[in-house]
Every structure is written in structure tokens, then in C-alpha cells.
Design a protein that fits this description.
Number of strands: 0
Shape: globular
Strand content: under 5%
Helix content: over 70%
Largest sheet: none
Order of helices and strands: HHHHHHHHHHH
Distance between the termini: 9 Å
Length: 327
């Protein structure tokens, strides 16, 4: 019998991955209802994992996980899981629970996720100072949550009056900056490690895809914020930044896919890091869709549909393997 994997914060990556399938599907033609069903299942998964965490985790457990240089990185997953479900409530769940309830859910989960995400953005990088650890894709996990906050906050800002709306948008751009510049510091370290030391263990190869997370999410955030105009040049910034970053994201897809295929030929054992194939790719879908709407591009909209098909296939594969691992 296969031994069950330990219960850690990385399990919340399953909520992130399932949630991005729902939220990305919200903008796909003909998929609104199926996406709503996926969101409802994701919300139940979040409730289950939170209840399990409250039952199993003690302060000593949390300290032990934070002391682990690999597991510590995945404390970025719980805040992103919270905000992904909250965004789904506003985009999809409102059809079932009503707008007022959806807003209440989203504001609550966004607030909790933002606070926790800012904490991981500070505490986990501090934990790595002087550790001598080599950078890998997982190092981005603690610093991506503020970018998720920026994108999710843009949707909430649309429901605010003028004064609070401006404050919310400015706050979202600040959160955008927190994650963007932290990413710019970390990605060169990941590339340097690859050049100097190679890929490392096969189980860490999927984490290369995490680089897509801040890239795709920043494209999404920049263009969603452009839809809440309170500052001059928001639309131009969203399109210019989004197009440039989208190009680099495609380059990273090509590199990551090639490395993944080569590793799979030699053997790619299942681990929870496989969820790195899902959420980051989902952010590229939402980013491509948001950019397509900003520039009214049929080509980009078509690419988003193709990427969404790949996302669903990746999610189904990883979800089945995860279920088997925890039977």
C-alpha cells in the first residue's frame, strides 16, 4: 500500500490549482456553469483542508515546517488558496449565493489572504538569509500572494465608491510592486542555480513552472486594474506591461516544458510539487484572457482557449495522482 504523504501547507496548492480552473473558466464561452460547479467543489476542499489544519497543526508543527527550508516556501499556498476561492465567489458563486453574500465571502478571504501573504513575503525570505540554500522555483511561492491580492482586489474595487475605490486601486498597485520586485530578485537566482548546479532532484523540476505564477498573475492584475480607472495611463500600462511580460512567459513555458519532458523520460516521480504545473499555467490563461480583452484581440482570445485546454488536462492529471497518493 502506498504511504500517505504528510499534511503540510503544500496541500493548499490543490485548492489554488482547482480554483484557477474555475476562475479561468469564468471567462470562457459556454463554461460559466461548469466553472461554477468546480468553484463550489473547490470551496468545499478549502473548508476541508482548513478544518484538517486546525485539527492537526500546533504551534510546534508550524515552527517545524517553517524551519524546513523547502516546506517553508509553501506557506505561500494557504493565502493564495483563500483568495482564489474568494475571487471565484465573486466571479461565479454570486449566481448561486447572491452578490451580497459573494462580496462578503470575497472581502473576508481577500483580507485574510492579503495579511497572510504579506507575512509570508517578509518572514520566509528572512528565514532564508544566511541559510546557504540554493534557490529553486518554490522560493517564489511566499512572494506571489501580494500579486494575487492585486488581481483579486481589482475585482473588489469595482464595487466601491469613488474615494475607497481610489485607495483600493493604489493599494493594489503597491501590492503589485511588492511581488514584482521580489520576483525580479529571485528569478535570477533560480537561473544561476540551474546554470551552475543543474536541475537537481527530479521532484523539484515541476517548480520551474512556478515562475509563470508571478508573470501570468501580474499580467492579469495590470489589466484588471486598468478596468478600474482612477489614475492616468492605467490602460496603456496594462497593455504595454502585459504584452512584454506575456512574451517572456511564453519563453519560460518553452524552457520549462522542454526540461519537464526530458526529465519525464528519465523518470518524474509524483510529488505535491506537480501542482506547480497547474496554478502557474492558470495565471497565464487569466493573463492572456485579460490582455485579449484590453486590446480586443481574437488571436489572444484563441490562445487563451488553447491554454485553458492544457490547464484542464494538467489539473485532471494531477488531481487524480493526488487522490491516489492520499487514499
Amino acid at each position: 500500500m502506498q504511504r500517505a504523504a504528510p499534511f503540510g501547507p503544500n496541500l493548499f496548492a490543490s485548492v489554488m490549482g482547482t480554483g484557477i480552473v474555475a476562475t479561468a473558466g469564468a471567462g470562457m464561452p459556454g463554461l460559466h456553469t461548469p466553472a461554477t460547479v468546480v468553484w463550489a467543489l473547490d470551496a468545499l476542499l478549502l473548508v476541508f483542508l482548513v478544518a484538517a489544519a486546525l485539527k492537526r497543526w500546533t504551534w510546534a508543527t508550524v515552527r517545524s515546517q517553517l524551519a524546513d527550508p523547502v516546506m517553508a516556501q509553501f506557506w505561500g499556498a494557504p493565502p493564495m488558496a483563500l483568495m482564489t476561492v474568494g475571487t471565484g465567489a465573486l466571479l461565479l458563486g454570486k449566481d448561486w449565493i447572491g452578490l451580497d453574500a459573494a462580496l462578503a465571502v470575497d472581502w473576508t478571504l481577500w483580507t485574510l489572504g492579503t495579511v497572510l501573504g504579506l507575512a509570508t513575503s517578509v518572514l520566509v525570505p528572512l528565514r532564508m538569509i544566511g541559510s546557504g540554500e540554493r534557490a529553486f522555483g518554490g522560493w517564489l511561492m511566499p512572494v506571489v500572494p501580494p500579486m494575487v491580492s492585486a488581481a483579486s482586489g481589482a475585482l473588489l474595487a469595482q464595487h466601491l465608491s469613488d474615494g475607497p475605490r481610489q485607495a483600493m486601486v493604489l493599494g493594489c498597485y503597491a501590492l503589485f510592486g511588492v511581488s514584482l520586485f521580489a520576483t525580479m530578485v529571485i528569478v535570477p537566482q533560480i537561473w544561476q542555480r540551474l546554470v551552475q548546479h543543474g536541475l537537481g532532484a527530479a521532484s523539484t523540476v515541476p517548480t520551474l513552472w512556478i515562475v509563470l505564477g508571478p508573470l501570468g498573475q501580474s499580467i492579469t492584475a495590470a489589466n484588471l486594474l486598468a478596468g478600474v480607472p482612477v489614475l492616468p495611463g492605467q490602460t496603456a500600462f496594462g497593455v504595454l506591461y502585459g504584452t512584454i511580460t506575456w512574451g517572456f512567459a511564453l519563453l519560460w513555458v518553452a524552457i520549462s516544458a522542454t526540461v519537464t519532458v526530458r526529465t519525464a523520460r528519465r523518470g518524474l516521480p509524483f510529488a505535491l510539487t506537480w501542482w506547480s504545473f497547474v496554478f502557474p499555467l492558470g495565471t497565464l490563461v487569466t493573463g492572456t484572457s485579460a490582455l485579449a480583452r484590453s486590446v480586443s484581440s481574437t488571436m489572444l482570445a484563441g490562445i487563451a482557449v488553447v491554454l485553458y485546454g492544457a490547464l484542464v488536462l494538467a489539473w485532471a492529471t494531477v488531481a487524480v495522482r493526488t487522490t491516489r497518493a492520499f487514499r
